[in-house]
Specification:
Blueprint lengths: L2 H11 L14 H9 L13 H4 L6 E10 L2 E10 L14 E7 L5 H14 L5 H14 L8 E7 L3 E6 L2 E7 L1 H12 L6 H7 L3 H7 L5
Antiparallel strand pairs: 1-2, 2-3, 3-4, 4-5, 5-6
């Protein structure tokens, strides 16, 4: 694999790996088409991991999807919610967990950098805040290999707890950071709208919000 190809792949792997950014030279719209084309509607599946059951009440799968890029499988994503579901219009007030199971190796630095790019693209934070967020993500996110899971648990009051597999790797209490981070997947402005629809596929959850997944 050439250096340019590795750089582009790292951009998209960080792209929605724990952060979303278009590959070098591609527009956000083009990245959405490449990534979202293989996202599939989620259905309830295997039980929630311990990292989720410890923090969420009776967690269940609201939706799941697979991210591919030019035929390469990047990761499988699952969104766990409580019996109350997720309020699509006000998800920042809702407890949930996002689990990503990787299909290939990715550096933690790529995850942090790509996440920051997407937060900035959507207009979250000042330049000074984002510099602090990058430091936080560099401390949080490890390198991952095929089969590894990274899970972010979103809690009320602007808190989040992160796990690698079932080992806790950090906690953040910064409402603006937490909203900006999970917006990468759940905000309507995401570069992978098909994956968002898959994660929010549970019709009962949508009905509770008084809206349907976009």
């Amino acid at each position: 694999m050439s250096r340019a190809t590795r750089a582009a792949l790292a951009g998209l792997l960080g792209a929605l790996a724990l952060g979303a950014a278009a590959p070098a030279g591609a527009s956000a719209e083009a990245a959405a088409g490449q990534a979202g084309s293989a996202a599939t509607a989620g259905t309830a599946s295997a039980g929630a991991p311990g990292a989720v059951t410890d923090l969420l009440r009776q967690p269940r799968v609201a939706g799941e999807g697979r991210l591919r890029w030019f035929g390469l499988q990047i990761y499988d994503a699952r969104l766990f919610v409580t019996p109350d579901g997720v309020d699509i219009e006000r998800w920042t007030r809702t407890p949930f967990a996002l689990e990503l199971r990787y299909a290939r190796k990715l550096l933690g630095e790529d995850i942090a950098q790509a996440s920051l790019k997407e937060m900035a693209r959507m207009g979250f934070g000042t330049e000074a805040q984002r510099a602090g967020w990058l430091d936080t993500m560099r401390r949080l996110f490890p390198d991952v290999s095929a089969g590894d899971r990274l899970t972010g648990v979103h809690l009320p009051e602007g808190r989040a707890v992160f796990y690698r597999n079932d080992t806790r790797i950090g906690r953040v209490e910064d409402r603006q950071f937490v909203e900006a981070f999970f917006a990468i997947w759940l905000d309507p402005r995401t570069v992978a709208p098909d994956l968002r629809r898959s994660l929010l596929a549970d019709p009962a959850a949508a009905a509770r919000a008084g809206a349907s997944p976009r």
